[in-house]
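Chain and conformation:
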Amino acid sequence: MPNDIKPRNIRILRELPISQMTDEEIVKAALDRLQTKAAMLCYEDPESKRVIFFDRYKKDGRIILRQLQVAWEEKFGKWKKIDEDI
């Protein structure tokens, strides 16, 4: 989400259809809805064939996301932040 756009509160996101949310908001809403410590959205860009991840975590939720990152990097190579790729 661009820095000039204020993130929407979870109370607002709870009422919105998924089609009106950004990728980051979808992950935020999933974390809230599932009442979990971590959530990740992963999809493949059909044009570039790049795999794109969005994640969000609460206290102690970073561990599982870090383990997934390490396993992915061992198999497919190091992750790169999108802004590093532009």
